[in-house]
């Protein structure tokens, strides 16, 4: 199937649903824009919240200061799992709209929260929002484009989301420098949430029938065994049993472990070396900006050269970037490290999602995406806990080196365990490989 293939006509003679980026360009573009708003909702926190802990609430140790990321990551990870199951049961659009509705109280909690526990609670609510909305936009784009342009589609999705994280981090950094840490940065977030809810409720179309169309056209090599997995079987298959899916799950978790470290500790490291709030905002934005824009290249590149070695190389580039952060002491060095970290993450992020889309059968793909994203976003919580404990015991730089070593090891795991999932001879085959 190429990008212009169509399904059969309906009984009334009108055109049926079509799979492909070109055939669904208007709806696909709208979903990219909505995912950018999802990213901006997260990005409002990247510069400001780590500094709130220290400057506004007097949180003195790293472990306590990073609890907001632990709460966010743990809740988002679990919500990702249920987002896939709920979107299969009730449809994609209701889950997307519900995710935006959950986010409505977050800016108020961040603006008027009287103590650090309110900020932690706000981030738990934000985790529900991000799990429902981001997971659903990913699933909907996979539904629309079909099998041949999956890497490009997910690259566009993640570029929109993380490009907006960068813009929001920069904007809120400027607002904080000009008007203080509260309330101005979070008024920006409130406007973003209102726009996201309005567009999702009024303009988005349901895409579940596109997945059903692909499932009807899907060809299995060895019968239909893998089209009828229970949710428990999907969880086991994605997490442990299937080689490519399980390798992708651990790599996704480690990649977000990096992001939990960067989100929670990098602003504090930079401030302690004398950087201004404006410079911290630039660095906080530079990493997700390169991450976002880079995915415009890497997603499509994975459709041409394959997934596996792009992922392996990306994990090793991230590890090298973290080492440079640990060695650096100046804005210029850290800016270079942020660029490298963003590029390495861009090589990995859409490609791992494309692996899930390559291997998982359309009948249970949404649930597999949910399981993968449970592992991946659990990395926020694991990264924040690990980084906080190591930083309290041995300092921030030790935490950076530990995470760098874990990231390099994750690349080795992918190189040994994962097989190439995107080959012309296997596109549409739908046959996973067991341990």
TrEMBL record:
Entry annotated with the keyword DNA repair: no
Membrane topology, record value: Multi-pass membrane protein
GO CC annotations, alphabetized: plasma membrane
GO molecular function, one term: transmembrane transporter activity
CDD domains per UniProt: MFS_MdtG_SLC18_like
Membrane-spanning intervals of the chain: 25-42, 62-83, 95-112, 161-180, 186-204, 277-297, 309-328, 334-359, 371-390, 396-416
PROSITE patterns associated with the record: MFS, SUGAR_TRANSPORT_1
InterPro entries: MFS, MFS_dom, MFS_trans_sf, MFS_Transporters, Sugar_transporter_CS
Annotated keywords: Cell membrane, Membrane, Transmembrane, Transmembrane helix, Transport
Every Major facilitator superfamily (MFS) profile domain range: 19-422
Compartments, as annotated in UniProt: Cell membrane
Family annotation (Pfam families): MFS_1
Name the UniProt record assigns to this protein: Putative MFS family arabinose efflux permease
């Amino acid at each position: 199937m190429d990008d212009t293939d169509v399904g059969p006509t309906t009984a009334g003679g009108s055109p049926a649903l079509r799979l492909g980026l070109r055939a669904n360009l208007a709806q696909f573009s709208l979903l990219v824009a909505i995912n950018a708003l999802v990213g901006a909702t997260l990005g409002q926190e990247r510069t400001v919240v780590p500094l709130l802990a220290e400057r506004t609430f007097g949180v003195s140790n790293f472990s306590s200061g990073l609890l907001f990321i632990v709460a966010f990551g743990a809740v988002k990870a679990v919500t990702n799992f249920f987002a896939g199951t709920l979107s299969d049961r009730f449809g994609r659009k209701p889950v997307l709209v519900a995710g935006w509705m959950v986010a409505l109280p977050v800016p108020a909690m961040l603006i008027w929260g009287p103590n650090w526990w309110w900020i932690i609670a706000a981030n738990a609510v934000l985790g529900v929002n991000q799990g429902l909305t981001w997971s659903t936009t990913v699933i909907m784009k996979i539904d629309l484009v079909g099998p041949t342009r999956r890497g490009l589609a997910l690259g566009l999705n993640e570029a929109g989301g993380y490009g907006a994280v960068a813009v929001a981090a920069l904007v809120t950094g400027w607002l904080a420098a000009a008007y203080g840490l509260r309330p101005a940065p979070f008024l920006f977030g409130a406007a973003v949430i209102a726009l996201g809810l309005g567009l999702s409720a009024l303009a988005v179309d349901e895409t579940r029938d596109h997945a059903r169309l692909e499932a009807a056209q899907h060809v299995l090599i060895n019968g239909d065994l893998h089209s009828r997995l229970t949710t428990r079987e999907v969880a086991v298959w994605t997490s442990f049993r299937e080689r490519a899916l399980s390798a992708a799950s651990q790599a996704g978790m480690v990649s977000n472990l990096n992001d939990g470290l960067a989100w929670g500790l990098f602003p504090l490291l930079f401030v302690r070396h004398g950087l201004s709030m404006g410079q911290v905002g630039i660095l906080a934005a530079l990493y997700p900006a390169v991450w976002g824009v880079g995915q415009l290249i890497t997603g499509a590149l994975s459709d041409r050269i394959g997934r596996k070695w792009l992922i392996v190389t990306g994990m090793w580039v991230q590890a090298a970037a973290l080492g440079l952060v640990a060695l650096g002491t100046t804005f210029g060095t850290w800016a270079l490290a942020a660029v490298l970290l963003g590029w390495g993450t861009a090589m990995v992020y859409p490609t791992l999602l494309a692996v899930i889309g390559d291997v998982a059968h359309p009948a249970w793909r949404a649930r597999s995406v949910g399981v993968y994203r449970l592992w991946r976003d659990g990395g926020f919580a694991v990264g924040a806990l690990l980084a906080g404990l190591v930083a309290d015991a041995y300092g921030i730089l030790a935490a950076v080196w530990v995470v760098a070593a874990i990231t390099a090891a994750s690349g080795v795991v992918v190189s040994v365990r994962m097989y190439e999932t995107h080959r012309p001879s296997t596109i549409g085959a739908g046959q996973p490989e067991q341990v």
